[in-house]
Automatic annotation (TrEMBL):
This is Glutamine--fructose-6-phosphate aminotransferase [isomerizing]. It is found in: Cytoplasm. It catalyses: D-fructose 6-phosphate + L-glutamine = D-glucosamine 6-phosphate + L-glutamate. Its EC number is 2.6.1.16. Residues 41-181, 214-356 form the SIS domain. Homodimer. The active site is at 361 (for fru-6p isomerization activity). GO terms for molecular function: glutamine-fructose-6-phosphate transaminase (isomerizing) activity. Signal peptide: none annotated. It comes from the Bacteria. Keywords: Aminotransferase, Cytoplasm, Glutamine amidotransferase, Repeat, Transferase. The keyword Transferase applies. Its main location: cytoplasm.
Length: 366
């Protein structure tokens, strides 16, 4: 039931902090990160030399973030692919110690299940990150990590996205541990950083009025451009997908540095651009992109870190996020503004946010 919320999208956005707390609870033991669900021995985990992350849609965006976390923390090479592409590729390279991780909220996405079967056929172990107990993905995999986000009813995925990112972060830490590339102290520090995420999300949700105000920029727009760098290029992809799904407004997303290689031609006075520009290594580069946006009279809505005057002075609206200790975890917090923004834009345009046209909650045909 809606329990007082106007729609499931609003309810599920609000449920994110608790979902993540549930997932993180009791995951740090004496020997480090506890992920017994993996059903892999220490030796098997330590031997993993390549990982394929396979998923569709929003879950694919989780895969992009997971790739960065695994490569940065565990130093294991990762290939991330859309299941619908992967299934027809002939260049899949499976070693004796390749692990396939499928990421699927519903556990029923046909392309993703087909990818898992293909990998099993090639001799790889398959591990599923899913939200649905007893789903086909769970039943057919060698190990399952349930993200425990609770039923997600709204077709547009919100709480499963953030919970799946956290699940993959735990997996990356577990792998780093077994590969001997991270000290127990470092693991504990990353775990504490993850534990701080729910409160940061609560803070973002308490600032929904910022998204409501910014939604006015999109009321009569016909298109929007999302920009971000590094891990937040993925936040841009997910923000654009959310906006398209629920508001039917055309949106595309690019790594910010790619704007000058083509998309900049779209800019004209009033054109809405959403820039994800938190306080991180690439901040100043993205600020330069915002200046280019402004020079063409386009309207910039930014997601930025509290107190960032350099962004505030350039943008029509700023969706503020509190500081996040580890910049690789910012996507889990920043995306919440984009979920809320998409919902407000959809509502101002009269769309049914829970049941967008042409879409089903799980896509069970290949
Ligand atoms: O259940 P899955 O995670 O396998 O679903 C994959 C996509 O169909 C799904 O994420 C879709 O993109 C959502 N509607 C996005 O909000």
């Amino acid at each position: 039931t809606l329990g007082g919320y106007a729609d499931f999208m609003a309810k599920e956005i609000a449920e994110q902090p608790e979902a993540i707390e549930r997932l993180l609870s009791g995951r740090l033991g004496e020997k480090g990160i506890l992920l017994d669900e993996l059903k892999m021995t220490e030796e098997e985990l330590a031997a993993v030399d390549r990982i394929y992350l396979i998923a569709c849609g929003t879950s694919y965006h989780v895969g992009l973030i997971a790739r960065t976390l695994i490569q940065t923390w565990a130093k294991v090479p990762v290939i991330c692919d859309y299941a619908s592409e992967f299934n027809y590729e002939q260049d899949v390279l499976v070693t004796d110690h390749t692990l396939c991780v499928i990421i699927t909220q519903s556990g029923e996405t046909a392309d993703t299940l087909a990818a898992a079967r293909k990998m099993h056929g090639m001799g790889a172990k398959v591990f599923a990150v899913t939200n649905v107990l007893g789903s086909t993905a769970a039943r057919e995999s060698d190990g399952v990590l349930y993200v425990q986000a609770g039923p997600e009813v709204c077709v547009a995925s919100t709480k499963a996205y953030t919970a799946q990112m956290v699940a993959c972060a735990l997996f990356a830490l577990r792998l780093a541990q077994s590969h001997g590339v991270m000290s127990a102290e470092e693991v504990a520090t990353h775990y504490q950083d993850l534990k701080a995420i729910p409160d940061a999300i609560r803070e973002v949700i308490s600032r929904s009025w910022q998204d409501k105000q910014a939604a006015a920029v999109f009321r009569s727009a016909t298109s929007a451009l999302f920009l971000g760098r590094g891990v937040n290029a993925t936040t841009a992809y997910e923000g654009a997908l959310k906006l398209k799904e629920v508001s039917y407004l055309h949106a595309e997303a690019y790594p910010a540095g790619e704007m000058k290689h083509g998309p900049i031609a779209l800019l004209e006075p009033g054109f809405p651009v959403v820039a994800i520009v938190p306080a991180d290594r690439v901040h100043d580069k993205t600020v330069s992109n915002i200046q280019e946006v402004n020079a063409r009279g386009a309207v910039c809505v930014a997601v930025a870190t509290d107190g960032d005057e350099s962004v505030a002075s350039l943008c029509e609206h700023v969706l503020w996020i509190p500081p996040v200790a580890d910049e690789l975890l910012v996507p889990i917090v920043a995306v919440v503004h984009l979920q809320i923004l998409a919902r407000y834009v959809a509502r101002t345009r009269g769309c049914d946010v829970d049941k967008p046209r042409n879409l089903a909650k799980s896509v069970t045909v290949e």
